[in-house]
Every structure is written in structure tokens, then in C-alpha cells.
Amino acid sequence: MSHQKVRDLMSDAVVRVQGGTPFKEIAHLLQEYDITAVPVVDDQDRPLGVVSEADLLYKIRGVREDHADHGSGGPPQPDKALATDAAGLMTTPALCAREDWSVVDAARVMAQHGVKRLLVVDDGGRLIGVVSRSDLLRVFLRTDQAIRTEIVEEVVVKALGEAPSAVQVDVTHGHVVLSGHLSSRVSAPALEELCRDVDGVVAVEYRPLGGAAEQPRAMRPWDFEG
Questions:
Q1: pTM recorded for the entire structure
Q2: 142-207: which CATH topology?
Q3: Splitting the chain (226 residues) into consecutive groups of 10 residues, what average pLDDT does each group show?
């Protein structure tokens, strides 16, 4: 299956600043564009770091308070409390994604680093966009019909080599219900796992024809009769 790419979901209208951008100008930009952070770039438009609302708040806390309460808020940052421009305020390094990353790649990096967004760069390392958590969640806005079509064409036919009619696929609000008799070379768990990997799928359930959802059980004597 082919997941949506970062390039399909990112925002390419990125407000950015350079290292010498003054503190107050950054504060104005965050308010004007209703954003919580702004990337800092060099003269080649390559990301150096990010200035967030949290970075600006060190100015309010002040140097003394920052030293006093660092036990509850991470290491003290007296330099940020004294900083007057983006170069002194920014958090580095800037976490970046490539535009050809899948949504899975981007989500994994965000989770690993506990961040809400990634800067997107091209092959030359230049800033071309920003992708956020909310952008990634847009995969769940796919229509049920689009999800069903991908499951039939990409999972059932291409990945498993089954006929399109081998499995009945019903999708409602991202909940996939599969029914039918699978061939001996295909297991229900394998089918379910492939379907879960389709963008926009919320849940997957397999129901063999003529019964409730298939459950593992021991073989009984009458299973071998006839």
C-alpha cells in the first residue's frame, strides 16, 4: 500500500524569520498569523531552528525565576531570558521531514520527539513547508468509498492475488467489515493487518460468511468428517 506523502498534506505558506529578527517582531508574527511557532532560516532558506511561544515566555519568567524553578520545568534557560532576537531564542536543531516521507514516517518522528510539527525541506535542505499533527489527521477525512476502492484494488487484488469478488468489503465511517471465504493461502489476520495499513482506516473486522467473527479454536472430531 502507498501511504499519502508529506507533500500532499503540508502547508507551503510558511512564515519564517532569520537569526537577526527582533523579539517583538516575532511576537507580532505569531499573533498576526495565529501560529504558535516560527522557523528560523539562514540566507539560503535552510532551517536553523524554531522559535515557539514557549521560547518567548522565558522573557516573562526572567533569569532569576528561571534558575529558581528549573526543577519543575527542565534545565534553566537564562540565555533565552536575555535573548533579543531569533538566534538567541530559537530551539535547535530544527526537526525536519522530507517531502517524500509517508504520513507514517512523519507521525513516527513526531511521536519520538514529542513535537507537534515538522519543517519540510527539499533535496537541497531548503524550507518548503510545514506539516503538523492536524495535517496528518486529514488522512481520516478520506471517504469510505475511497478506502473501499483501495482495499479491493491494492489489498485484495494486488497484495493477495484474490479476485475482487473474493471478499466483501463494507466501510462505514472508516470502520471496515470484511466478509467471505478466503483461499487457503490467505489468513484472516494477514488480511486485517493489510487493511489497517490503509490510510483512513479506523478499525477492521473480519466476518466469515455464515457466522460471527472468526475466532481461533481447537479442531474437533467432526471437523474431519465428510
A1: 0.75
A2: Histidine-containing Protein; Chain: A; (3.30.1340)
A3: 89 96 98 96 97 92 54 62 95 95 95 94 96 94 96 95 92 96 85 95 87 44 45
